[in-house]
C-alpha cells in the first residue's frame, strides 16, 4: 500500500535524524549560512502598480512601522529571513526530539492497518453470507404468503360448512325439549332455534340440493308438527283461564300471555291454520268475557240512576200539569235543578277520575244523574280498550283484532245507551254528555290510542240530534204555552222566567271553553221565545205599572242568574240589561205620575213654552201657586209612599233602591225645572216662601241612599 510505503520512508528518515543527533550533529553546519544576495543577473522588475500596492499597505501596522522607522527594506528583509531560518531550525530540533514518539506512532498505525485489513476480509465474507440469507428469506416469504392464502380459504370453507352443519343439524337436546319438555322459557328459546332451522331449510336453495336435507327434513317436519300441537294446547289452556269468574284479565295478559308471545309469532310463520284457530279462539273468548263484564257493570249502574227530567219537564209547562200516565212527582216548581246546572258541572272537572264502583255506591244509597254513569261507563271503556289495544298489538302484532273483540262490548253498550238516549229529556245532561265525549276524545288522543275514534264520533253524532230535539221542545213549550194557566197574580219573578234564566245560564257556563256557535244560535232562539211569552204574561196585569214591575222583576232576576254563570256577560245578558233599563225608565215615570201628576204635566206641557212668543199663554202665579203648595205639603209623604211601594214591588232590594234613587233624581229634575219656570214669572218671587229648597230634597234623597 502506498500509505504504508510513505510511513516507512518517514520512519527511516526520522531514524537517521535521531542517529545524527546522538553523534552531536550540528544543524547549523549542515544547513549552511543562509544569506540574501542581490541577484545582479535578474531581469528588471516592473514597478507598474507599485503605487497602488503601497496605498493598500498603508493601513497595515507592520508596513507602517517599517516605513516610519526609515530602515532600508533590504536590511529588514534580511532580518526577517534570519528569523525564519531560526524558527525553521527550532522546528527541526523539536521534530528530532519527538522522533521516538513518531516511530511509536508509525508502529501503531501499521498494526491498525493490519487489523483493518483482516476486518475488511471478514466483512466481505459476511456480506456474501447475508446476500445468500436474503435470497432464502424471500423464498420463505413467498411460501408463507401461499400458505396464508390457503389457510384463509380453508377457514372460509370451514365457517360455511360449520354454519351449514349448525343450521341443518337437529341436536338430540332440542328433540327432547320439543317433544317432552314443558312450555316455559327454555321451550321458547328452543322454538326460536327450530324456527331458524325451518327458515334455513326453506329459504336457502343450496340446502335443497344437499344430501343432508334428505335425512334431516323429515325430522324437522315432525318437530314442527309436535311443537305446533303442544303450544296450541298451552295457549288454549291460558285462554280458558280468561273465562274464569273474577279473573283479572289485564294481569293475566301482562304477566302470563306476553311472556309467551313468541308462540304466536311461531304459529304465524310455521302453522298459519293453527294461528288462525288461536286468533279466533282469543277473539271469541275476549268478546264474550268483555261483553259479560260490561253487561254486568251497566246493570249495576242502572240501579244508581237518578231520574232528572221527563217529557213534561219543559220551561213553558205549567207546574200543575202532568201527563196521563206520568207517575206522581214532587211539584216541578220546587225542582229547579231540572233547569239549573248547579253541582252537575263537577263532572267535567272529574273527567279523568276512576270509574264508579257500583256496589260501594249502592251500599251508600247514592244516586247519580245519568251523565255521571255515562262518564263512568266510558271511562271504563277507555281504560279497557287502551289495555286491550296495546296487548293485541304486542301479542298478535296486529291492531285489527281489537275491533273484532270489541264488536261485542260495543253492541252491549249500544243496547243500553240507545233506549236511554231515546227517553232522555234532560237537555243539560245531554250537553254534559257531549262535553264528556269531547274530553274523552282528547284523553285518547293524548294516549295516542286511535281504537275508539269511530265509536266516540258515533256517540257524539247521536247525542247532538237528541239534544237539538229536547232543546226545540223547550222552545216549543214557550211558544205554545197557555198564558192563562201560566199567569199568576203576582208581580214577582215568574217561575217560567226563572227556569229560563237558570237553563240559559247553564248552557252559557257549559259553552265558555268551547265557543259552540250552534249552541249560541239555539240560545238566541230560546231567548226570542221567552221574550214573547213574558210580554204576553205582563199584559194580563190590569195596570201598566204592574206590567212594568213584573217585567223589571223578571229581567233583573234573569240578569242576576246569568251573571252567576259568567261575569263577562254576553249578547243575552246585554239584551236583558237594555230591557231592564228601558222598563226602569217607564216605571219611574209611572211612579212619579202617580204621586206628582199635576207637577209633571205642567213641567212637560208649560214649562218649556216661550212666553215672549205667545203672551196670551203666559204662565201666571195663579197657575203655579197650587202646584207649589201641593208639593210643599206632601212631598215627604209621597217619597215615603214611593219607598214603601218599591220595597213591596221588587224582589231584589238593590234593584228597588236603584229604581228609587232614579225616581227621586227624576223628581228633583222636574222640581228644578218648576223653580226655574217660577223665576221667569212676573211676581213669582212671592211664591218663594212656599217653595221647598233643592237642598232639602237632596238631603231626603241622601237619606234614602244610606240604605244601599
TrEMBL record:
The keyword Transport applies. Keywords: Golgi apparatus, Protein transport, Transport. Belongs to the VPS52 family. Its main location: Golgi. One of its GO terms (biological process) is protein transport. Residues 284-588 form the Vps52 C-terminal domain. Residues 94-267 form the Vps52 coiled-coil domain. Pfam families: Vps52_C, Vps52_CC. This is Vacuolar protein sorting-associated protein 52 A. It comes from the Eukaryota. It comes from Brassica campestris. InterPro entries: Vps52 (IPR007258), Vps52_C (IPR048361), Vps52_CC (IPR048319). Transmembrane segments: none annotated. One of its GO terms (cellular component) is Golgi apparatus.
Amino acid at each position: 500500500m502506498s500509505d504504508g510505503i510513505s510511513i516507512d520512508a518517514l520512519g527511516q528518515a526520522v531514524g537517521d535524524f535521531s542517529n545524527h543527533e546522538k553523534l552531536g550533529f550540528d544543524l547549523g553546519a549542515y544547513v549552511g549560512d543562509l544569506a540574501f544576495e542581490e541577484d545582479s543577473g535578474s531581469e528588471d522588475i516592473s514597478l507598474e502598480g507599485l503605487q497602488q500596492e503601497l496605498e493598500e499597505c498603508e493601513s497595515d501596522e507592520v508596513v507602517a512601522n517599517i516605513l516610519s522607522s526609515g530602515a532600508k527594506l533590504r536590511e529588514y528583509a534580511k532580518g526577517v529571513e534570519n528569523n525564519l531560518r531560526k524558527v525553521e531550525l527550532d522546528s527541526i530540533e523539536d521534530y528530532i526530539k519527538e522522533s521516538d514518539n513518531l516511530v511509536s506512532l508509525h508502529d501503531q498505525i501499521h498494526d491498525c492497518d493490519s487489523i483493518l485489513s483482516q476486518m475488511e476480509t471478514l466483512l466481505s465474507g459476511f456480506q456474501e453470507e447475508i446476500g445468500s440469507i436474503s435470497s432464502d428469506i424471500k423464498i420463505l416469504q413467498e411460501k408463507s404468503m401461499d400458505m396464508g392464502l390457503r389457510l384463509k380459504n380453508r377457514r372460509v370453507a370451514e365457517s360455511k360448512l360449520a354454519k351449514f352443519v349448525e343450521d341443518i343439524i337437529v341436536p338430540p337436546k332440542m328433540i327432547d325439549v320439543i317433544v317432552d319438555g314443558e312450555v316455559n322459557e327454555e321451550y321458547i328459546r328452543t322454538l326460536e332455534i327450530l324456527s331458524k332451522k325451518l327458515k334455513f331449510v326453506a329459504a336457502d336453495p343450496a340446502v335443497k340440493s344437499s344430501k343432508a336435507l334428505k335425512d334431516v327434513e323429515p325430522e324437522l317436519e315432525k318437530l314442527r308438527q309436535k311443537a305446533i300441537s303442544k303450544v296450541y294446547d298451552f295457549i288454549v289452556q291460558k285462554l280458558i283461564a280468561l273465562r274464569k269468574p273474577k279473573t283479572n284479565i289485564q294481569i293475566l295478559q301482562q304477566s302470563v300471555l306476553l311472556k309467551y308471545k313468541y308462540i304466536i309469532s311461531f304459529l304465524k310463520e310455521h302453522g298459519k291454520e293453527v294461528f288462525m284457530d288461536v286468533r279466533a279462539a282469543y277473539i271469541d273468548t275476549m268478546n264474550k268475557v268483555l261483553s259479560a263484564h260490561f253487561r254486568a257493570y251497566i246493570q249495576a249502574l242502572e240501579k244508581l240512576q237518578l231520574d232528572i227530567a221527563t217529557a213534561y219537564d219543559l220551561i213553558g209547562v205549567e207546574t200543575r200539569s202532568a201527563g196521563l200516565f206520568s207517575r206522581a212527582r214532587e211539584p216541578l216548581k220546587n225542582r229547579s235543578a231540572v233547569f239549573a246546572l248547579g253541582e252537575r258541572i263537577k263532572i267535567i272537572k272529574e273527567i279523568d277520575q276512576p270509574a264508579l264502583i257500583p256496589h260501594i255506591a249502592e251500599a251508600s244509597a247514592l244516586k247519580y244523574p245519568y251523565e255521571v254513569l255515562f262518564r263512568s261507563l266510558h271511562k271504563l271503556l277507555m281504560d279497557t280498550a287502551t289495555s286491550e289495544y296495546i296487548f293485541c298489538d304486542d301479542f298478535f302484532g296486529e291492531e285489527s283484532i281489537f275491533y273484532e273483540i270489541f264488536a261485542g262490548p260495543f253492541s252491549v253498550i249500544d243496547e243500553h245507551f240507545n233506549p236511554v238516549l231515546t227517553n232522555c229529556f234532560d237537555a243539560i245532561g245531554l250537553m254534559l254528555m257531549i262535553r264528556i265525549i269531547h274530553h274523552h276524545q282528547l284523553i285518547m288522543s293524548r294516549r295516542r290510542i286511535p281504537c275508539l275514534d269511530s265509536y266516540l264520533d258515533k256517540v257524539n253524532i247521536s247525542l247532538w240530534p237528541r239534544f237539538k230535539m229536547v232543546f226545540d221542545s223547550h222552545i216549543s213549550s214557550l211558544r205554545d204555552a197557555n198564558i192563562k194557566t201560566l199567569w199568576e197574580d203576582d208581580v214577582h219573578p215568574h217561575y217560567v222566567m226563572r227556569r229560563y234564566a237558570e237553563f240559559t245560564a247553564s248552557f252559557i257556563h257549559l259553552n265558555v271553553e268551547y265557543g259552540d256557535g250552534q249552541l249560541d244560535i239555539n240560545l238566541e232562539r230560546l231567548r226570542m221565545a221567552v221574550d214573547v211569552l213574558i210580554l204576553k204574561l205582563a199584559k194580563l196585569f190590569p195596570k201598566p205599572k204592574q206590567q212594568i214591575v213584573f217585567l223589571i222583576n223578571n229581567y233583573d232576576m234573569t240578569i242576576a242568574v246569568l251573571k252567576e254563570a259568567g261575569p263577562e256577560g254576553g249578547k243575552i245578558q246585554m239584551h236583558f240589561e237594555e230591557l231592564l233599563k228601558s222598563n226602569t225608565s217607564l216605571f219611574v215615570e209611572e211612579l212619579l205620575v202617580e204621586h206628582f201628576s199635576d207637577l209633571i204635566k205642567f213641567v212637560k206641557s208649560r214649562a218649556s213654552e216661550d212666553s215672549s212668543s205667545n203672551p196670551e199663554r203666559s204662565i201666571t202665579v195663579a197657575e203655579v201657586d197650587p202646584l207649589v203648595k201641593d208639593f210643599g205639603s206632601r212631598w215627604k209623604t209621597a217619597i215615603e209612599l214611593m219607598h214603601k211601594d218599591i220595597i213591596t214591588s221588587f224582589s231584589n232590594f238593590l234593584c228597588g233602591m236603584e229604581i228609587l234613587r232614579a225616581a227621586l233624581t227624576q223628581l228633583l229634575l222636574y222640581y228644578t225645572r218648576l223653580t226655574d219656570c217660577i223665576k221667569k214669572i212676573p211676581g213669582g218671587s212671592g211664591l218663594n216662601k212656599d217653595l221647598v229648597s233643592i237642598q232639602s230634597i237632596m238631603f231626603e234623597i241622601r237619606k234614602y241612599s244610606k240604605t244601599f
